[in-house]
Amino acid sequence: MKACVPLILAMLCGLAWAGKMESCASRCNEKFNRAAACQCDRQCPWYWDCCDDYQHLCTVEKDPIEPEPFLELEEEMEEEMEEAPASNLYSAPDSCRGRCHESFDRHHPCHCNARCPEFGNCCEDFDSQCGHEGFSHSSDAITKEELKAISEKIYRADTNKAQKEDIILNSQNAISPSETRDQVDHCPEPLFTYVNEKLFSKPTYAAFINLLNNYQRATGQAEHFSGQQLAEQDTFLREVMKTAVMKELYSFFHHQNRYSSEQEFVNDLKNMWFGLYSRGNEEGDSSGFEHVFSGEIKKGKVTGFHNWIRFYMQEKEGLVDYYSHIYDGPWESYPDVLAMQFNWDGYYKEVGSAFIGSSPEFEFALYSLCFIARPGKTCQLSLGGYPLAIQTYSWDKSTYGNGKKYIATAYVVSSTR
């Protein structure tokens, strides 16, 4: 009997420890604990793995708190937002002219975002300026739950994505975030060992690839498109709109009263993605599509370049040298997510996140979803049961239509938690 006492005590202690690991008691703001059944760190709301008593024990007045910043932040967006004078951002802070879809700014006396009707702080001309956007009533605000539901539908609808046998990835060495500025090549082999290029004959892939070489990668050099290149933009939009992925996205926004017809939706996509604006000294030297999918060079650095197909094709030509990665997503099938470091023909990308193995329409849909629903904010989605966030920024120095904003950038938020 005496021999059993230590065993019983050990079992009781183990049960007590396990119970502690299911509560945030004495654990608020601790570091991520892989052994625990649930978490109490500041990022758990984003990962949806907080303990049941997290909000009660670890937040002030039971309000949820924002997760800590994630690793990737587009440096050029910081620079451009700092350089932009207030007169360029808003024509009049007490009006919604040119401000529809803007992020909340506590310095403004009134607001023009989707939730201002709910809080009763819209500018007086909100309905006249932004009513055509389809969110002049609080019932039109898109909830987090709706975003997660539509992203799962888009994920399931992506039948053109790569299968496991279509791509052999050689991610090799991971580094810590503190090492990303060192510009050291930790991976002697290419990232892509094999890609089944039969994927590229599919209509959306082929239309997407035709667009990639239509741009001058250096900002400050104006873009001039031939008639054929403009037609290629229309071809891409036409092909992606045939897919189940984009039909799901349009149906979602149509149900939300954001667009009254598919043609209105397509016209808006063309403007927000392909409309030209100036990042440098030349008029019309950049666009959302060029920045996000093809990549740009500004002030001696790679900016944008968040697409695996572009990466593979440039690596195959010897123009991209894969250095390392700091994040590899949890998905066991494609699409997956990788946050990596690389050199693009003499220029370095410190942190570049990208979907791997996704179809062009899948990325185009998710980035568009988040830009329209959460412009300038972190957009929390769900893919295959795993949380995923996308960050977008709008271009605030020029607009199209009735004050609508172009896409400045969009990318998958990466974290090494």
Structurally, the number of domains stands at: 2
Approximate helicity band: 25-40%
- Count the beta strands: 10
- What is the global morphology? globular
Range of strand content: 15-25%
Low-confidence sequence ranges: 60-72, 78-92, 134-140
Order of helices and strands: HHHHHHHHEEHHHHHEEHEEEHEEE
Break the fold down into its secondary structure elements and pairings.
Blueprint lengths: L3 H17 L23 H4 L6 H5 L16 H9 L2 H4 L26 H4 L6 H5 L13 H14 L9 E3 L22 E4 L7 H10 L14 H14 L3 H12 L6 H13 L13 H7 L1 E3 L2 E3 L4 H9 L3 E9 L7 E9 L2 E10 L3 H14 L4 E6 L2 E15 L3 E9 L5
Antiparallel strand pairs: 1-2, 3-4, 5-6, 6-7, 8-9, 9-10
Helix pairs in contact: 8-11, 8-15, 9-10
Task: Write up what this structure looks like.
The protein has about 425 residues and is of the alpha+beta class. It has two domains: about 95-135, Factor Xa Inhibitor (Irregular), CATH 4.10.410; about 145-415, no CATH class. Helix content is about 35%, strand content about 15%. The chain contains 15 helices and ten strands. Strands 5-6-7 form a three-stranded antiparallel beta sheet, with helices on one face. A three-stranded antiparallel beta sheet has the order 8-9-10. A two-stranded antiparallel sheet has the order 1-2. Strand 8 (about 380-385) and strand 9 (about 385-400) form a beta hairpin. It is globular, with a radius of gyration of 23 Å.
